[in-house]
Amino acid sequence: MSMTVSIIQRFNTTSYQFPSGRAPFLFYPKIPMKKPLSPSLRWSGLLVALLLGATSCKKEETAASPTPPTPPPTVPTPTPTAFDIADTYANVAALGSLGQWGPYNVHDPAVIKDDDGYYYMYSTDVGYGISDAVLTPGLQVRRSKDLVQWEFVGWALKGLPPLGVAYITQRGGVPNKLLWAPYVLKVGSEYRLYYSLASNVFKLSTIGLATASAPTGPWTEKGLVVTTDNSSADITNGIDPTVIVDQQGQHRIYYGSAFDGIHVVKLDAATGLNATPGDRGPRIAQRGSTGGQINGNIEGPEIVYNKEQGKYYLFISYDWLQTKYNVRVGRANSPQGPFLDFRGRDLNLAEDHGPMILAPYQFEGHSGWQGTGHCGVFSDGNGQYYMAHQGRPGIDSYYMDLHVRKIFWTPSGWPVVSPERYAGEDNSAVAPADLAGTWEQITLNYIVIPGYGNEQLTPNFQYSTALTLAADGTFGGATAGTWAYAAPWLTLRFANGTSAPVYV
């Protein structure tokens, strides 16, 4: 069975394919686009195909490129009529320009929509060309009303949380200078912010909790939720939290990076802390191995309950954060699992799983996007889900750009994501005449490269090929066949006898 995903579009595009050997497609028109994004831009013809198939040790940033110059700080225009997001941003990367960071220097985002109409984003302390010793610790905070233009608010915490520091130092470790991978949720009138603090000691890490009465704080540290160390081989690294309140009101935290996979722990709903102090919970997901070596990292879990689908969805990132980072997904009827992949295989089996719904890709005329992992999945409150994650341009993988994508659900209840970043498009009906034309198609194949940062040096880019939908109902390019359209469905019939229904 193929473990790929296929995307098509007529801009700079992307394509995904899943386990049945058939490809879900996302389409955009192939029109030259010199500026990466504009809110006024309305992409035409988003198509999401519906037949899916099987498709870091430590979260440290490698030393960045030479430190960029520090221009004088400026304040961004609050509501510009046109807004461009560049792939690289050396001119505003430094601390002196933090007012212009917006979608830049974003890693491991967690997003919540508040009652004030803003989306608030919390992310890892990191900056292009900024050393750990200089960068402010405390989790970066941004906000946006349209998911396109982001305002840098500041830091959630003022330095490293004392309880997390104490746990590590009492066990002979030196805490990292910066915090990683937060998660945020609101319980009643209380905002709960979970942080990750790792150290120089193998697997000596902790996830702590801080609370506030407003999304911008001030935050008060409440306690440690999960702690890990190097006392046993079957202990994961205690970072990368995500929390869910299930349909019965039980709170759970999912976490883990590398080593032993993803674990789940029950929380005390009243406090947000571990219901059983010291509990590390059972493992619910892991990776396969090749020749006795693990196939790569597994980390960054994110869980949501989709009421319309009636299932819990667990999104997980595979591989090294700077290169091959990609997103997989499993689903379950219960928040405890088992979480199953597209083939019905338990994610806790010692094997790699699909579907892979996002991975490094490159469209014509662009350096490509790598490091497309550690996603935050969230809703607008009206049933539309989005995925936020970092993207690193192929031209320089030390830049970290925010990507936000719409999530679409197939009739069989699997998520697929838009091929390019969200730009305020409304995905309105597409006329048949607008479908004819030349598209770029990317099939997200996957090559196993066992190991971590030292081994996974290549992003394993998936490159676009041409696919032309002719007005006479045929298509050609890398594949050939016929197509028919009865809105909102496009059916692609391939020369080899397979077909793919595509939602327009």
UniProtKB/TrEMBL annotation:
<dbReference type="Pfam" id="PF04616">
    <property type="entry name" value="Glyco_hydro_43"/>
</dbReference>
<dbReference type="GO" id="GO:0005975">
    <property type="term" value="P:carbohydrate metabolic process"/>
</dbReference>
<comment type="similarity">
    <text>Belongs to the glycosyl hydrolase 43 family.</text>
</comment>
<keyword id="KW-0326">Glycosidase</keyword>
<dbReference type="InterPro" id="IPR023296">
    <property type="entry name" value="Glyco_hydro_beta-prop_sf"/>
</dbReference>
<feature type="domain" description="Extracellular endo-alpha-(1-&gt;5)-L-arabinanase C-terminal">
    <location>
        <begin position="419"/>
        <end position="489"/>
    </location>
</feature>
<comment type="pathway">
    <text>Glycan metabolism; L-arabinan degradation.</text>
</comment>
<protein>
    <submittedName>
        <fullName>Arabinan endo-1,5-alpha-L-arabinosidase</fullName>
    </submittedName>
</protein>
<dbReference type="InterPro" id="IPR032291">
    <property type="entry name" value="Abn2_C"/>
</dbReference>
<feature type="compositionally biased region" description="Pro residues">
    <location>
        <begin position="66"/>
        <end position="79"/>
    </location>
</feature>
<feature type="active site" description="Proton donor">
    <location>
        <position position="299"/>
    </location>
</feature>
<dbReference type="Pfam" id="PF16369">
    <property type="entry name" value="GH43_C"/>
</dbReference>
<dbReference type="GO" id="GO:0004553">
    <property type="term" value="F:hydrolase activity, hydrolyzing O-glycosyl compounds"/>
</dbReference>
<keyword id="KW-0378">Hydrolase</keyword>
<dbReference type="InterPro" id="IPR050727">
    <property type="entry name" value="GH43_arabinanases"/>
</dbReference>
<dbReference type="InterPro" id="IPR006710">
    <property type="entry name" value="Glyco_hydro_43"/>
</dbReference>
<feature type="region of interest" description="Disordered">
    <location>
        <begin position="60"/>
        <end position="79"/>
    </location>
</feature>
<feature type="site" description="Important for catalytic activity, responsible for pKa modulation of the active site Glu and correct orientation of both the proton donor and substrate">
    <location>
        <position position="240"/>
    </location>
</feature>
<feature type="active site" description="Proton acceptor">
    <location>
        <position position="108"/>
    </location>
</feature>
